[in-house]
Amino acid sequence: MHQTTPIDILVIEDNPGDFLLLKEFLRLTSLPIKSVTNADRLEQAFILLKEQSHDLVFLDLSLPDSEGIESFISLQKKAAHLPIIVLSGLTDVTIALESITLGAQDYLVKGEYTDKLLAKTIQYSIERKRNELKLFESNRRYELLSQATNDTIWDWDLHNNQVTWNDGIKTIFGYNHTDIKSEINWWQQNIHSEDKERVIAKIYRHIESGIKIWKDEYRFRCYNGSYKYVYDRGFILFDKDSKPSRLIGAMQDLTDRRKLEQQLTNEKINKQKQLTQATIEGQEKERSEISRELHDNINQVLVTIKLYLELATDDPKLKDDLIKRSVERIMYCITEIRTLSKSLAPPSLNDHGLIEAITELVDNLRLTKTFNIDLNLKLESLQFSNLQQLYIYRIIQEQLNNIIKHANAKNVWVELIENYHYVDLIIRDDGQGFNPKEKSSGIGLTNIQNRAELLNGTLEIISAVNDGCVLKVRIAEKSYQNLIPDLL
User: Fold this and answer.
1) For a FRET experiment, which of 106, 237, 263, 398 has its CA 20 to 30 Å from that of 383?
2) 3-17, 62-76, 172-186, 443-457: which has the minimum mean pLDDT?
3) Has domain 150-253 been given CATH number 1.10.620.20?
4) Which residues neighbour 190 within 8 Å (Cβ) at sequence distance 6 or greater?
5) Element (H, E) at 278
6) Which helix (H) or strand (E) holds 246?
7) Who contacts 256 (Cβ-Cβ below 8 Å, separation ≥6)?
């Protein structure tokens, strides 16, 4: 170690002979000493410390205005940033040693030091104080960091298996520092039994392999006996022999996040159950309608045809007329079955596209003259997948069936308009309306709601008794640009 920076020294000594002797030895050290200032009292030293900058202080423990260890304590308060070397007589060695425990860098016995010892003492005192200040500043930054974060910071000394914790162990887990054992076993014992073996094995595997970064998720016991989910991560520090010496890390509380994730999972499961239930109910409803349609209409016509053919067999005079009527009834059955099949089967969107399928649906309804229907389709840069197109088609088909069955409307308007950031599907009627807040026993609107959600769209229903109904499905731009894979 070689001192090259000029040194300003303050000597607090009331004996002129001792001061001159020390000053002479300082000259013999060949150290780059810039100045040596003398103060014969502690109060005078305090004034000099304010007026001038110094790099080192020599302190005599016996002064006219202060005596013994109190001299060092008083000086330490005023010059905590400076290295202090105590000058003592033979009778003051015990007090000098006590001052070292309180923060002095070294002590010298008057009349027993040499220039070489003095030089060594000065250089080591300055270096030790510099390292002490660096460590203090590092610890201060560590404390500030610990206070600035909500995480629980921990420091594991791998040589003695001792762990220190910041105040996060109290704010997050409820432990006072008096409740904590510094041994690493305390942390291990508070890991949930289902996670303990896995977590401990992984962290020791990282230490033994010299892997710098360790991280894991597990449950940690709180002071009240409950458990919190934590995300724990640590960084391994190595000694001069490249062996792991410390592990510093932070525990982050994930409990609220896990609860939210579980809540979202449960909601997703419940929504899936609702979709499944609605699908089953829809299937049962369709089967019931098919059964009723076959029984009440086609079956009755087939019974009539059977009677015609039996009469034709028994009465030759009526044979030609009855066969003709039977043929007419059979053609009626064929037409009804084709209509029924067409309403149940998915429209051929691959062949004709959504606009043509909707137009054909509306044209067929116009032929029934149930109500006047106006159609407005504006889709210039359509990017819907086939499955999305089917969802839109089924929403229109379902709502038009609802209007036929319940609305008693005279006029209906269907609009499918592409805007800049979204697509709007609007179906209006001037029928008898209803109260949307009243729970409906049907599943028509439920099916529409489910299909709107599958399109990542929003459903809005505006209606009132005797004031018609407006059904609006808005599909955001991102929904129809992120195409669903074709499943048809």
Assistant:
1) 398
2) 443-457
3) no
4) 220, 221
5) helix 255-293
6) strand 244-253
7) none
